[in-house]
Amino acid sequence: MSRHGYESGRLELPFVGISTFGKRPYEPDWSKIEADVAVLGAPFDFGTQWRSGARFGPRSVREASTLFSFGHAGAYDHEDDATYLDGDVRIVDMGDADIVHTDTEKSHANIETGVRAALSAGALPVIIGGDHSINIPCIRAFGGPEYAGPDFHVLQIDAHLDFVDERHGVRHGHGNPMRRAAELSYVTGLTQVGIRNVSSTAKEGYEDARAMGSDILSVRQARAIGPTGVIERIPKGAPVYVTIDIDAFCPSIAPGTGTPSHGGFLYYDVLEMLQALAKTHPVVGIDLVEVAPDYDPTGSTAILAAQVLLNMLGFIFDARACI
Questions:
Q1: Tens of pLDDT along 116-173?
Q2: DSSP states along 158-207
Q3: Of 103, 136, 163, 287, which has the maximum CB count within 10 A?
Q4: Which of 187, 127, 199, 186 shows the shortest CA–CA distance to 158?
Q5: Domains, the chain, with CATH or none
Q6: Mode of pairing for the β-strands spanning 91-96 and 124-129
Q7: On the CB side of 317, how many CA atoms lie within 13 Å of its CA?
């Protein structure tokens, strides 16, 4: 609790101090990470096909996350009668991967290096994007010796399928990450939820996705079976990597994104899926992408992103404590 200020005699209100994620300690030396969770910023948005601006996502989500740091350890949820993220869960902020302007491959390589550092430390990597192309190096990092765990499933919560193979020579943009993930030997399958309306992927892409092991659900289909029903479609007990595109949410509550799509999820649609997942499947990694704060002067999109991440981490470590 001292790291939050009470024992040092400081109140540490949310608007005071440096905006690390959740006001947790900053660890710039990636060889010295000692934590259960390591948060990495990936401020890269060269992969976008319409509105840029997600490069400012990590900074905005970090600032928004301070709203949930009031100087006491953990957050008590009266509905669940549980205190989440108490002092026993060690979270550090690694800062950002270095981005080389106009160079996708070098920037992605730097992001991969950061994720590998988190894995090497035995921490759960949590990556804040950036556009959805940053998922490519994140998933690629699990192919190295730093990850000794089993093969895993990918849960994508998103408005868009992101299963384009190649478009005008581009294979590592924000329309490609799920195709690149499906090609990896250690990714056992994908559950793609929230996919809707006018898509960036043609019909052939949907056919390819299903042929390569994808289970695709729209928002309406997901609501028809409920959050638990969605998670029950994931192979029982399989480790899961979770990738959340903020445009999975309806732009009425998350306008701050580059490619908004109406008809999206509301907060509890997603929160209850994540809680159900944490109870039944081990989570090996998380990324949250496509927050572009300049399109939302209210700041509510970044607050939503921070709240989702913090709650999800709470669910994960509460479930681990119950094992």
A1: 999 999 999 999 999 999 999 999 999 999 999 999 999 999 999 999 888 889 888 8
A2: -SS------BTTB-SSTTSHHHHHHTSTTEEEEEEES--SS-SS-HHHHH
A3: 163
A4: 199
A5: 2-322 (3.40.800.10)
A6: unpaired
A7: 22
